[in-house]
Design a protein that fits this description.
With about 220 residues, the protein is α/β, with parallel strands linked by helices. About 40% of the residues lie in helices and about 20% in strands. Helix 1 packs across helix 2, helix 3 crosses helix 4 and helix 4 packs parallel to helix 6. The protein is globular. It starts with a strand and ends with a strand. It comes from Streptomyces sp. R39.
Length: about 220
């Protein structure tokens, strides 16, 4: 595979599926929820990645009042925060984050603060200093608000940011924010990111002339 080199001034990183493999707990929680509501679990799993829980519920149960979705989401967030069995880093995530020390980057996740803290700790990963969580935004991915807020907090123009994402909702959010997107993992490949990597072992970041050179893939 020939390496792709992207030049940026900041990196915006999703958490679940990008830095942290939380698929086991996401499957457990959402398949139980599917059964309670008489929905097909496989179809539900096609929707939930990348979105805040209440936003997924609004897609899956369009006639249900948002107040119920928000209450249901709060219960599920508590379940997810308490359940970290099987939560591990995406291969290469620790080294990737270590390489970003002192460089402009932010975490942009649909998880809330408690869930973000629990999952990053379970995976043995440090929390970036700049974080945009569910509490920070009024709209869930695929809305670009989170990524635009991350760029603003770093003081970097959206066009100078590169997003790392795994989900369709997240990739759409990055695109809508006017950013280039590196897709991480097989789930990302079908959603049209600028480039796809199997995991973060295939990514190198170097500082050069006041910018970041992101080398993706290659030997």
């Amino acid at each position: 595979m020939t390496a792709t080199v992207l030049t940026a001034r900041a990196l915006l990183l999703d958490m679940d599926g990008t830095l942290v493999n939380s698929d086991a707990v996401v499957e457990r929680i959402w398949r139980r929820w599917s059964e309670r509501h008489g929905l097909d679990g496989d179809e539900v799993m096609q929707v939930v990645h990348g979105r805040q829980g209440h936003a997924s519920m609004a897609v899956l149960l369009p006639d249900r009042p948002m107040k119920q979705n928000l209450a249901d989401n709060a219960r599920m967030l508590a379940e997810e925060t308490a359940d970290t069995e099987g939560v591990v880093e995406i291969p290469g995530a620790a080294a990737f984050l270590a390489s970003l020390q002192g460089l402009p980057h932010a975490l942009v996740t649909s998880a809330d603060v408690a869930l973000t803290t629990a999952r990053m700790a379970a995976a043995g990963l440090p929390l970036p200093a700049v974080r945009v969580t569910a509490e920070s935004v009024g709209a869930s991915k695929p809305d670009p608000e989170g990524f635009l807020k991350g760029a603003a907090e770093l003081g970097i123009a959206p066009a100078d940011c590169v997003v790392f994402e795994d989900s369709g909702a997240g990739i759409a959010a990055g695109r809508a924010a006017g950013m280039r997107v590196v897709g991480v993992g097989a789930r990302a490949a079908v959603h049209g990111p600028d480039v796809v990597v199997r995991d973060l072992t295939a990514v190198r970041v170097e500082k050069a002339d006041g910018s970041l050179r992101v080398r993706v893939g290659g030997a």
